[in-house]
Amino acid sequence: MNKAFGKKGLKLCTALMAVVLVFTGCGSKGNSDNSSKELSSIEGRYTIDPETPAWKLDKKEETTDLTWYVNADWWNTDFGKDLVTKKIKEDLNINIKFITGDDTKLNTIFAGGEMPDMLTIFDSNSPVVQKAATWALPLNDLADKYDPYFNKVAAKDTMNWFQLVDGKTYGYPNYSNTQNDFDSGNIPAKTAFVIRKDVYEAIGKPAIGTPEEFKSAMQQIKKQFPDMIPFGFNSIGTGTGSLGDALQDFIGVPMETENGEFYNRNLDEDYLTWLKTLNEVYRNGDISDDSFADDGTAFEEKLKSGKYATMMLDGTPQQSGNLQIFMTENPGKEYIAIDGPQSTAGHEPTLNQSGITGWMITYVTKKVKDPAKAIQIYTYLLSEEGQKLMNYGIEGETYKVNEAGKIEFLPEIKDLQLNNADKFKKDYRMGEFMFFGHDRDKALSNDAFADSIKQMQEWGKGKLKPHFILENINPAQGTPEARSLSAIDTNWNTTLVSMIRSKDDATFESTLAAYKAFLKDNNWDKIVEIRTEKMKNNKEKLGLK
């Protein structure tokens, strides 16, 4: 997500450059530390068994104290106070001291500060991640020596994806969705074109697939519901809201050219046709000027009050609470997903979800005091037992399994989740402590998502398509191409809004022409070359032709 650039942005940029300097400047020092440190012995503690998780075998009596740095100021540092982390502490006989910070603090750690036992980073393209072999231990080696059961619960595709040039994998993420996860049907869609049920019925449930149908529906809504905003979308801020990648996925814009090169989806004719349509809808008064200026809070307030008749909505789980509020207070008027805008070129939707890169990549550093216990944490949390604990708690205490085999929160826990979120979070922490979590585990329970988005998720079945080939393809940080891309992205964000708000066709076309000229003036051909090469590397990692 793009951030507004100011003093805060300058500070972040400076910190990232400093991280780059730390790694580029350490040269031979970093190279001399490439080999794994001598791994400590577990003789007398336990004998490894490929069929049994090591945490169940470990006889170590004293509690292991570990420090775990998470590069996010917002992370909850409590451990052992809530039901989830108390159970982790008990089962693994560990005590974790979480430390949090931002990129400035991360840079300080790598510039000579005290290295933690474990470390979690969010940016998979950062120099810290790319140089992991100089400061982290390979998970492959840790598993071989201490916990081979790890190989049963870690996804091979994810391990291969994060493999460095030395053939070893150092970090493992959460929410890493593999091809098998997509194929399983257990990952729900998070994007939908939604309309208020009462509005849809009042205008005769028309098809809204073609540009003409879309414009007609917006006019009908304006006529019959003059106090509503016919069409809305996620807060744009400094990005593109749900009118950029989300809309492109919704109408199935290709991800690559026919010969496998990077494709600028922003200039796809099908997509541009829909942007022209939105411009006409705007000129007809069916899109509010406020929608382009509203921040997330303003957007959510309008959503909760049902102000939008229709929306292109991305991140439905994140908006489920607001949708639920409107649904509960306005029975029969809830938002429902319909087919909405469709490709003018005959493409099917290719909705995106969290990809194989996932989020929150966690490493074991070379300074770890107990490497055996560290890899046990990975195995425990990745296992079915750990996933159920993090999502649903403990059977009999927080949930039961019904006759259909689905997990159900006990009535008092469900009531707490719905009516006292603060206490639920403090005392239980289910759904929040999610290291190595997976989207697929949400399918174990009907309580995993609010009722307000279940119909939307049902509509999205069969419409997801992995975007693996487009992951991590941007130029390396600190390069001229990276700086050019940043400028291009910023330019596109303003261009998109300007095109939709154009006063006439001529202004739309001149704005688009200015964007194309900006591409030529900012190393676009070189960026395409870099992205194409990285796409080819991604295909090789995934075994794709």
Automatic annotation (TrEMBL):
Signal peptide: none
Superkingdom, taxonomy of origin: Bacteria
Protein name: Sugar ABC transporter substrate-binding protein
